[in-house]
Write a structure and sequence with these properties.
- The complex is a heterodimer of chains A (900) and B (111).
- Chain A has 28 helices and 23 strands.
- The longest helix of chain A has 44 residues.
- In chain A, a hairpin with a 5-residue loop joins strand 11 and strand 12.
- By secondary structure, chain A is of the alpha+beta class.
- Chain B is built from four helices and three strands; from the N terminus they run H-E-H-H-E-E-H.
- Chain B has 111 residues and is an alpha+beta fold.
- In chain B, helix 1 crosses helix 4.
- The relative contact order of chain B is 0.17.
- In chain B, a hairpin with a 5-residue loop joins strand 2 and strand 3.
- Chain B has a three-stranded antiparallel β-sheet.
- The chains are: A alpha+beta (900), B alpha+beta (111).
Chain lengths: 900, 111
């Protein structure tokens, strides 16, 4: 209390300093003049009176000085003096200052950068009120504890009816939809729509910027559009409410509201929310398709853990109520965790990496400061001799460190600022777009604190060390204290090497994974392949009939194949295109459907049914040829495989090997779990293809001709057929052909909204993109760490050779061979490196486990990576020893002996 | 030269004396100096000038308030006045000082 009041008065003084000086002068004048008057009245002459008054008053200068000092923050004034002194010291030693500054700036810059990510992704609040109460409810299938899937309508209703911990629940399912905003036949846009239950917007708890959200009573196909779509398609028109969108065969819904910017549920971003009334959902109550994202708002005071406990207890009654949910468990994640997935762990790893980097930088600067100690000692000893207290000397040294860390901070922030766009472009694509990485005041404040703490850490050790040494020792420049110092520096450098080894092994393991992944062949020729996605209008109709499994049936129109083949025909004739095929998901660019299947004369035990699943690809003729998937046996699909001919299928080598081990699969009948799918005869075996480059082994795969698809299918499957993916083999530059391909497609129907025109190489790179970014980032940190620790090693080696010039000179004079001198010098360095590497390996064995889940094909203790990093570190360390050792060799004994 | 026998001040006692002097009412710096000299019958070696840093320190501590006024010789002068905090401080300091003096006297008599 009293302290703050005093500080307030002192601060007030700061603003009226000149006024204070005037008043002080006035007061002195008044005092002296009044005294003179009085003395004159007592009979003294004016001169005598003035002299006496002045004598009685004492030193005016001291009085002014002390009065001023009474008001000042003494430590602040001292600090400024110390800082000025420190700045002078640094100007005299530019090479030391620049090296130390570079170390600090790198360490602090890296930390600022990573913290800006941590701040944006983990710390800053989500744009929903009480966002910590919003959870995502997901479902984990039996025996696949790593998967988290969405909900089916049945589970949504079950949880809503039985749970006591949620205030509100909302489900949303994503549907791609071709939409033309202004009705009519203007070119449509390809947007992500979210079909949501009325509770969703209550869960999120934000208000629309225009109009209103859905109410439970809306029945006339209302939609809410995103802020982005409102800007893009309607030019932010204020009268957008009441306008209609053209949803093709689905009708023309009316816009009732505009969502606030940043409002979204999950990736990908939704542009149109469509109301899915609960009674529609109830129709599909028995559907097994977990296509809904389920969100819920916890009641106030309920924790995620409590809610999770309730979910755990609901899982088995849920399975008892509906067989399709048997064995499934329910998982809750806070909205933030659902958004960022495993990014939290990754960020913490990076945070750890940059802290290690900063520690290395600290050790380096501390080591540099210790090296300065020899020269500094004389100055400091002199100051002690002249009466500076030990505390005062330490303070001076700390001021130097403070200045160094503030300068390091400034340069570091500039570094971080220039690296910001690199890091933000490397962010995973699945992050919601409202996450914005900036160097905001919180980030800058954090890194300032970090820099100041750094200054204390790297400064305290040398400062204590220097101020403690015996004055006489120093003036004699006794070798004893030098020895102690070089041991300390050796320990610091060993620690640096150890930390660098940890970072390098981490980076090495990631690089190893990436290299292995790059070696994985997808099983087809990606180069020269390009994909274009086309939404087909009006390819299916809802039938209102439920399938046996509980989903809704859709009737697929005959137009699906006509239009599909017509476009394929045109694409084949585009100059530069060699062949074209139609499929459902882009190669390496999506998740294929999987279905159970069974083979003729092979009744499956219930336990086997789960195992007999395969990726299911409905493809057009020419698919294998276009992708260059090798045909191993039998035949490919031909134009003759039509809806009137015998149903056929082609399987891949893995399926053949796994399920028809000792038989010839060709000619065998198989039956898929696709509703209404007829039994098919296997006519060919093709090579394995990887749809996901992270797969360790190829999956069983099955191809069927698109022309032979059943006319009635599950609605969710039909919706997938509403989008066709064309794969085109090109002669030259695939990306350059895209405009021509687009023109060809528009030639069939100019309202087609074409999306995702990408090369397959692009998809292939995209799958590894995140891992590549992480690897590059970690490798940069590893590189900086090795640079810093080598600089530290080099520094102590040079210093030690300089210190031992005398000794080496004597040895040379006594006839020591150059080899033994070299060995003697290198030995010292290698000892430091050896200890460092040893500690680093032990630490790595314990620490690399944290990046285990980001590795592919290597264990976290991969011996090869460890050995390679060790060798690299040894070689680099040896080089760092070599230069000082050669310098030792060149020492002239005569000069060396005179050196002292 | 002034040959009178003077004694050095005990640390902190200047504050106490200033507080005591101002207890009767506001005074300017010169008057405070005079009062202390007169009351001590010139027995204290205080330079007049050293009063002012002490006054400033007491202002910072909040024991005094200063304001400009007109002196008895019709000049502008800075008057110092006790604050309630200053009054409290005077009480505690007086008490402590009396205790201290009593203790010292006890030692001096017994030895």
């Amino acid at each position: 209390m009293g302290f703050w009041k005093q500080a307030g008065r002192r601060a007030a003084y700061w603003f009226r300093r000149s006024e204070f000086e005037d008043e002080l002068e006035q007061e002195i004048r008044f005092h002296l003049e009044t005294r003179i008057e009085e003395l004159e009245r007592a009979g003294l002459s004016n001169r005598e009176a003035a002299a006496r008054a002045r004598r009685e008053f004492g030193s005016g200068a001291r009085m002014r000085e002390e009065s001023r000092a009474a008001w000042q923050f003494q430590w602040l004034e001292d600090l400024l003096t110390d800082l000025r002194h420190a700045a002078r010291t640094f100007r005299k030693k530019p090479s030391f200052t620049l090296t130390a500054l570079a170390c600090l700036a790198l360490g602090i810059g890296a930390n600022t950068l990573i913290f800006s990510l941590v701040d944006a992704i983990l710390l800053r609040s989500l744009p929903y009120p009480n966002a910590d109460r919003i959870v995502m409810v997901r479902f984990t299938p039996p025996a696949h504890s790593d998967q988290k899937l969405g909900t089916n309508p049945g589970s949504y209703f079950f949880i809503r009816e039985h749970s006591r911990v949620f205030e509100r629940m909302g489900a949303v399912r994503l549907v791609y939809q071709s939409v033309s905003p202004n009705g009519g036949d203007s070119a449509s846009q390809w947007v992500q729509t979210g079909w949501c239950s009325p509770g969703l917007t209550d869960v999120m708890g934000v208000k629309p910027v225009l109009g209103r959200w859905f109410s439970g009573y809306d029945r006339d196909f209302p939609v809410v559009i995103s802020y982005g779509l409102w800007q893009r398609a309607f030019g932010s028109a204020p009268d957008v409410i009441g306008r209609k969108l053209n949803f093709g065969s689905l009708g023309a819904p009316q816009v009732i509201g505009v969502a606030p910017p940043g409002f979204q549920t999950l990736d990908p971003e939704i542009d149109v929310w469509v109301l899915q009334p609960d009674e529609n959902l109830a129709l599909a109550r028995r559907s097994p398709n977990r296509v809904f994202n389920l969100f819920a708002r916890l009641k106030p005071g309920v924790t995620v853990a409590q809610a999770q406990a309730e979910m755990d207890s609901l899982a088995s009654p849920m399975g008892a109520a509906s067989p399709i949910d048997r064995g499934w468990s329910i998982r809750l994640d806070s909205l933030r965790d659902a958004y960022i997935g495993n990014l939290r762990q990754l960020l913490l790893i990076f945070q750890g990496a940059v802290l290690i980097l900063l520690l290395i930088a600290c050790a380096n600067v501390a080591s540099l400061l210790l090296a300065q100690a020899t020269t500094r000692h004389r100055e400091l000893a002199l100051r002690s001799a002249l009466g500076s207290s030990r505390g005062r000397v330490i303070r001076q040294l700390l001021a130097e460190n403070l200045l160094l860390s503030i300068l390091g901070y400034l340069v570091g922030v500039v570094l971080a600022w220039s690296g910001l766009h690199v890091v933000t472009s490397a962010l995973p694509t699945m992050l919601p777009r409202f996450i914005e990485v900036t160097l905001n005041p919180a980030v800058l404040g954090y890194s300032l604190l970090l820099s100041l703490a750094t200054g204390l850490i790297f400064g305290a050790l040398p400062a204590l060390h220097m101020s403690r040494s015996d004055l006489m020792d120093v003036l004699r420049d006794a070798s004893r204290s030098t020895l102690r110092r070089s041991n300390l520096r050796g320990a610091l450098v060993a620690a640096e090497v150890a930390l660098a080894v940890v970072l390098l092994i981490g980076a090495g393991l990631m690089t190893n994974s990436l290299l292995r992944l790059n070696l994985v062949r997808p099983g087809f020729e990606t180069r020269g392949l390009v994909t274009v996605q086309v939404p087909f209008q009006e390819v299916y109709k809802r039938t209102g009939i439920n399938t046996a499994a509980g989903g809704m049936l859709a009737q697929v129109g005959p137009k699906l194949n006509q239009v599909g083949e017509e476009i394929r025909e045109r694409l084949t004739h585009v100059p530069g295109a060699e062949s074209a095929a139609l499929t459902m998901t882009p190669p390496l660019g999506g998740t294929p459907r999987r279905f159970n299947f069974s083979a003729e004369n092979r009744p499956l035990a219930p336990s086997e049914q789960e195992a007999w699943t395969a990726e299911w690809y409905p493809v057009s003729p020419d698919y294998f040829h276009t992708l260059r998937i090798p045909l191993l046996r039998g035949r490919e699909f031909a134009a003759a495989d039509s809806d009137t001919s015998r149903p056929v299928a082609v399987i891949n080598a893995t399926l053949a090997e796994r399920f028809f081990r000792n038989e010839n699969p060709i000619g065998k009948q198989i039956q898929t779990g696709v509703v209404y799918d007829p039994p098919r005869e296997i006519v060919g075996i093709v090579g394995d293809v990887r749809q996901n480059r992270y797969e360790y082994a190829p999956q069983p795969q099955m191809y069927v001709p698109r022309a032979q698809l059943p006319q009635k299918m599950d609605l969710s499957l039909a919706q997938q057929f509403a989008v066709g993916t064309y794969v085109v083999r090109t002669h030259g530059d695939p990306a350059g052909l895209l405009p021509a391909l687009r023109t060809a497609i528009r030639g069939v129907d100019r309202t087609f909204a074409i999306t995702n025109s990408r090369t397959v190489d692009d998809y292939a790179a995209g799958q590894l993109q995140d891992l590549r970014h992480y690897t590059v980032l970690l490798s940069i940190f590893g590189g900086i760490s090795i640079l810093l620790s080598v600089a530290g090693l080099f520094g102590i080696m040079m210093h030690s050779v300089n210190q031992r010039t005398n000794e080496i000179g004597i040895r040379v004079a006594l006839g020591a061979r150059s080899g033994s001198i070299l060995g003697m010098v290198a030995q010292q360095g290698m000892l430091v490196i050896g200890i460092g590497i040893l500690c680093g390996v032990v630490a790595s064995l314990a620490l690399t486990r944290v990046i285990g889940r980001f590795l592919w094909g290597v264990t976290a203790t991969d011996p090869l990576t460890f050995v390679l990093v060790l060798l690299a570190m040894l070689i680099v360390g040896l080089l760092a020893c070599l230069v000082p050792a050669r310098r030792a060799l060149r020492i002239d004994p005569i000069l060396a002996l005179r050196w002292e | 030269m002034d040959e009178r026998a003077t004694s050095e001040l005990l640390p902190g006692t200047l504050y106490m004396m200033v507080l005591r002097t101002l207890n009767a009412g506001p005074l300017h710096g010169y008057a405070i100096a005079r009062r202390i000299q007169e009351a001590s019958k010139g027995g204290l070696a205080i330079e007049d000038g050293s009063l002012y840093p002490a006054l400033n320190r007491m202002l910072v501590k909040g024991w005094l308030k200063a304001e400009w006024g007109i002196s008895e010789n019709n000049r502008k002068a800075r008057f110092y006045r006790l604050t309630p905090e200053g009054r409290k401080q005077l009480e505690t300091e007086t008490e402590l000082f009396t205790q201290l003096v009593r203790s010292i006297q006890l030692v001096m008599r017994s030895a």
